[in-house]
Amino acid sequence: MHRLLRGELFMLGGFVVAAAVTIALVMPPAIDPAAAQWTQTSTGPLTAADRDLLVKVRQAGLWEMPVGEYAQTRAESQRVKEVGKLIMEEHRDLDLITRQTAKKLGVALPDEPNPDQQRWMAQLAAESGPAFDKDFANLLRAAHGKVFTVVAGVRSGTRNSEIRKFAQEGINYVMRHMAYLESTGLVDHGQLPEPPTPSPAPPVALAVEKRRHS
């Protein structure tokens, strides 16, 4: 009886092992979601963040070029008109670079601004004079601040040399445009998002102790 029971258990164990091996062979290996979003290209791996950068820069141009043109007829301030023209012309250049880079890397780009940008365009299209000047300067300055963090984040960590070059170019454009907008004297810096909270510094005594033992 005991021998029979042991034999049945042995056979059952064999079936379990066989089933486990079959499942392991049939089931695909687990895929890391982050790795699944990577695409290998001739200039290095292309991540979801890299593709998102191209999309966001493209969309920035799609609304900033038209509102730069609005400034030529709706602004009262001569400096706002000048800044609008500069941003419009420079975004045309940046848009060409964006489309060329996206084509090299096989990234699909949008052909219209996002819903927030469309709303800002509608707001500015309905304004003129001092109201236009103020909102033009502040809406565009806030938008440039947001896209700057995206561009800088990708520039600091991308593994793709083409995106690295593109992000560096993007940083130069965004910083220049922020300076243009601030030169109007209309930007309300108190309404801009707070800078990120810095990490707490280590206690002085602890830092000195570590240096002493290093």
TrEMBL record:
Residues 193-203 have a biased composition (Pro residues). It comes from the Bacteria. Residues 49-179 form the DUF4142 domain. InterPro entries: DUF4142, Ferritin-like. The keyword Transmembrane helix applies. The keyword Membrane applies. The chain crosses the membrane at residues 9-31. Residues 188-214 are annotated as: Disordered. It holds the Pfam family DUF4142. Keywords: Membrane, Transmembrane, Transmembrane helix. This is DUF4142 domain-containing protein.
